[in-house]
Amino acid sequence: MRIVRLANFVTPTSGGLRTALYSLGQGYAGAGHEPVLVIPGADHGEEDTPQGKVITLPGVHVPGLGGYRVMLRRRPLLDLLGRLDPDRLEVSDRTTLRWTGAWARAHGVPAVMVSHESLDGLLGVARLPGPALRWLAGRLNRNTARDYDRVICTTDWATREFDRIGVRNVDQVPLGVDLDLFRPDRRAPHGGPGVLLVCCVRLSLEKRPQRALTTLAALRSRGVDARLVIAGDGPLRERLEAEAAAGGLPVTFTGWMSDRGALADLLASADVVIAPGPVETFGLAALEALACGSPVVVSSSSALPGVVGDAGVAVAGEDMSAGVVELLGRPEAGRRAAARARAEMFGWDAAVRGFLAVHADL
C-alpha cells in the first residue's frame, strides 16, 4: 500500500511532528508498505530514507516562525499527487493542506487527517472570545471531518473538540516513544549542585516557554537551589535569554539538539522536566523524558495530564514550581521507576499498528 503523507510546518530542526512522521514512516516501511512523505523546503528534492521516500517541494518562508515553510502553491502538489498515485492519503495539517481531502475524494483515494494540534487550543492562544472560538473551531473541525474519511486523534483531550460537535468518523491512536533510545540508564551526574530542571520545547508563543523561567525564579525565591537547561530554539529565544540574564537566573540555552542521543542523556540526567505547553495534544518530549526515568510537570490545560498519569504532576498557570516541589518530595527511585513504567505503555510499534489499522479499515 502506497501511503502518501503530507505535512507543512516541518523543518530539519522541528520537534514532535518531525519525530512522529519519521517514526510512523519507518514503521510503515517495516510493515511492507510504501510510505512517501511530502514536505516543504527551499528547493525541490527527493531522498530515500528509513522512513521511506521524502520529497520536498519549494515552500514559502513564514516570517517570525523560526524557519518554517509552507507549501502554498497547489498546482505543483496536485501534479505530484497525480504522479504518485497513492493508495492512501495521510495529511498532518488541518489548515493549509486541508484542501487535499477534496482532491482525494474526487480521485477515489481514501484519506486520513491526523490531528496534531487543537484548534480550540490554538484559537484560544489567539484570545478569541469564547463563543467566537467555539463557533470557528467547530466549523473548521466539521469541514475537516467532512473532507476526510477518518480523523485520527492521539488523546482523549484531542478527541473532545470533535465529540463536542458530534463528529463520529474519529479514531483515537496514541503516539509512541523510542524506548530503546530514551532509557533511564543514560542518567549521569549532571555536573552541578542542586536540582537540574530541563525544558525541551520550541521557543514560540503557543508553547509558553516563559513558564520555565517563571518556575525557576519561584523555586529559587523559596530557597531551592535549582538551575535550568532549555533545549530548543525559536523566535522567542533572544527575548528569553535577555530575561534570564536580567534576572540573574542560572539558565543554559542549548538551542535545537540534533544529536538525539545527547538529548536522551540530558533528559535522563534531569531531576524534573518541565512541559509548559498549554495546548499540547500529546507531548512527545514529555513522554521521552518519562522513558528516561525523569518525572514531568505539565500544564493542566493540555492533553499531557492524561499522557503522564501518576508519573507527573499537572499544574495550572504560569508558575509550575508547586509541581516541581511535589515531585522532588517523592523518593527518587520510586518517581523514576514510575516514569519509565508509564512510558512503556506507549511504544511506536503499537502506534504504527493503530495507524495502519485505520488505513486498512478504509
Detail the topology: elements first, then pairings.
Layout: E1 2-6, H1 16-30, E2 34-41, E3 45-49, E4 52-58, E5 60-61, E6 69-70, H2 74-84, E7 88-91, H3 100-106, E8 111-115, H4 119-125, H5 130-147, E9 150-153, H6 156-163, E10 170-172, E11 195-200, H7 210-221, E12 226-231, H8 237-246, E13 251-255, H9 260-269, E14 272-275, H10 284-291, E15 296-299, H11 304-308, E16 312-315, H12 321-328, H13 332-343, H14 348-361
Parallel strand pairs: 1-2, 1-7, 2-4, 7-8, 8-9, 9-10, 11-12, 11-14, 12-13, 14-15, 15-16
Antiparallel strand pairs: 3-4, 5-6
Helix pairs in contact: 1-14, 4-5, 10-13
Organism: Longispora fulva
GO molecular function: glycosyltransferase activity
Protein name: Alpha-1,6-mannosyltransferase
Description:
The structure is a single chain. With 362 residues, the chain is of the alpha/beta class. It folds into 2 domains: 2-176 and 347-361, 3-Layer(aba) Sandwich (Rossmann fold), CATH 3.40.50; 184-343, 3-Layer(aba) Sandwich (Rossmann fold), CATH 3.40.50. Helix content is 40%, strand content 20%. It is built from 14 helices and 16 strands. The chain has helices spanning 16-30, 74-84, 100-106, 119-125, 130-147, 156-163, 210-221, 237-246, 260-269, 284-291, 304-308, 321-328, 332-343, 348-361; strands at 2-6, 34-41, 45-49, 52-58, 60-61, 69-70, 88-91, 111-115, 150-153, 170-172, 195-200, 226-231, 251-255, 272-275, 296-299, 312-315. Strands 3-4-2-1-7-8-9-10 form an 8-stranded mixed β-sheet, sandwiched between helices. The two termini are 12 Å apart. The relative contact order is 0.13. Its EC number is 2.4.1.-. InterPro entries: Glyco_trans_1, Glyco_trans_4-like_N, Glycosyltransferase_grp1.
